[in-house]
């Protein structure tokens, strides 16, 4: 059994799996970067002084901030996808 997909295409058989793995890992890294970004932004916006517990005002602010951050990120992502579809159709 050969590790090559066929004699006309000298790419290793695992090349597709490697590309898929790398794509998933890249998506994970982007997701983690986004979490850190809104964590930093919302912390600066909502937390006046860290304590042993979050008060209800701070908790509400953090929840709303993260929700808005996610909403805006999705809006921008969807808008770019629409623009890409329009440019591909042209």
Characterise this structure:
This protein has 90 residues and is mostly helical. The protein is built from two helices and two strands. The protein has a two-stranded antiparallel ribbon. A hairpin with a 2-residue loop joins strand 1 (4-6) and strand 2 (9-12). Helix 1 (15-46) packs across helix 2 (56-89). It is flat.
Main attributes of the structure:
two-stranded antiparallel ribbon; mainly alpha; 73% helix; 90 residues
Q: Helices, strands, pairings?
A:
Blueprint: E1 4-6, E2 9-12, H1 15-46, H2 56-89
Antiparallel strand pairs: 1-2
Helix pairs in contact: 1-2
- Return Rg in Å: 22 Å
Tell me the span between the first and last alpha carbons.
Answer: 46 Å
Helix content: over 70%
Strand order of the largest sheet: 1-2
The tally of helices reads 2
Counting helices, strands and paired strands, the structural category is: mainly alpha
Q: pLDDT under 50 segments (min length 5)?
A: none
Largest sheet: 2 strands, antiparallel
- Strand residue content: 5-15%
H/E topology pattern = EEHH
Return the average pLDDT rounded to an integer. 85
Q: Could you tell me the number of beta strands?
A: 2
Shape: flat
Provide a brief overview of the structure.
The chain has 90 residues and is mainly alpha-helical. It contains 2 helices and 2 strands, in the order ββαα. The protein has helices spanning 15-46, 56-89, and strands spanning 4-6, 9-12.
């Amino acid at each position: 059994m050969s590790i090559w997909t066929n004699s006309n295409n000298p790419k290793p058989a695992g090349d597709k799996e490697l590309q898929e793995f790398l794509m998933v890992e890249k998506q994970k890294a982007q997701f983690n970067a986004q979490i850190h970004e809104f964590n930093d932004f919302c912390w600066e916006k909502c937390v006046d002084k860290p304590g042993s517990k979050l008060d209800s005002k701070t908790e509400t602010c953090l929840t709303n901030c993260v929700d808005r951050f996610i909403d805006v990120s999705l809006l921008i992502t969807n808008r770019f996808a629409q623009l890409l579809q329009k440019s591909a159709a042209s």
